[in-house]
Amino acid sequence: MDFKRYAVYVTPEPGPLAEFGAAWLGWDCTTGCSVDHLTVPGLPIPLSEITETPRKYGLHATMKPPFRLVHGQSEAALVTAFETFCSTTAPATLAGLELACLGRFLALVPEGDETALRCLAAEALQAFEPFRAPLTEAELAHRRAGGLSPEHDALLVQWGYPYVMQAFRFHITLSGKLPRAEARRTQAVLAPLLEPLLPHPFAIAALSLMGEDESGRFHLIRRDALCG
């Protein structure tokens, strides 16, 4: 499959959380297949509407945001660099994950000390920078249209994304932006379903190299253990 963009994600290891997330979102990025939505009584709006925005990405947290390959680089070279990075980089362990309402969307966020996680994210961001094509003027304008602080704009120019390095916040997105009341109601329904599935501790022991197809959906290219 030809991909128009690539990214490095954290995806849950195969198991109950990954299966729940695929059925919640309606897309399994590890198999590249649509999944029938769960039947979840009590949601304020249909699940397909709640998850419309994050569906195409699959259940994930971003480490290297999506990027186009710069001229002169290839997917094969990116795969080789990804294998090397994973083989020489140490895993990170967090106290756990918890469901949170971040503004108007729901996500799983880390509990406890995030120092090792932030170091891993910074290393991944920098390691694959030689493969990233610079943003076009249209892409810059699109990112700036929502309003960025001077700090975020500087990060956008340097790294192609405004929420990295000191602005990085690890999160596994579970919804699009919702009215605040609907976000709170969705959180109340989702929390007891997720609670028995959330890992404590949560080990980031592997990274996933992803590719975005022409329709905008992301697919797993390979998932490698962190062995450094």
Please tell me about this protein's structure:
- With 228 residues, this protein is an alpha+beta fold.
- The protein is built from 7 helices and 11 strands.
- It has helices at 16-25, 47-50, 75-88, 115-127, 137-144, 150-159, 180-194; strands spanning 5-10, 27-28, 33-34, 61-67, 92-94, 96-102, 105-111, 172-173, 202-204, 206-212, 218-225.
- Strands 4-1-10-11 form a 4-stranded antiparallel beta sheet, with helices on one face.
- β2 and β3 (33-34) form a beta hairpin.
- It is globular, with a radius of gyration of 17 Å.
- It starts with a strand and ends with a strand.
The string of secondary-structure elements, in order, is EHEEHEHEEEHHHEHEEE
Task: Extract low-pLDDT stretches.
Answer: none
- Beta-strand content estimate: 15-25%
Structural class: alpha+beta
Number of H- or I-type helical stretches: 7
Biggest beta-sheet profile: 4 strands, antiparallel
Mean pLDDT equals: 96
Shape label: globular
Q: How are the strands of the largest sheet arranged?
A: 4-1-10-11
Amino- and carboxy-terminal Cα gap: 30 Å
Structure described in brief:
With 228 residues, this protein is of the alpha+beta class.
Task: Please specify the SSE layout and strand pairing.
Blueprint: E1 5-10, H1 16-25, E2 27-28, E3 33-34, H2 47-50, E4 61-67, H3 75-88, E5 92-94, E6 96-102, E7 105-111, H4 115-127, H5 137-144, H6 150-159, E8 172-173, H7 180-194, E9 202-204, E10 206-212, E11 218-225
Antiparallel strand pairs: 1-4, 1-10, 2-3, 5-9, 6-7, 7-8, 10-11
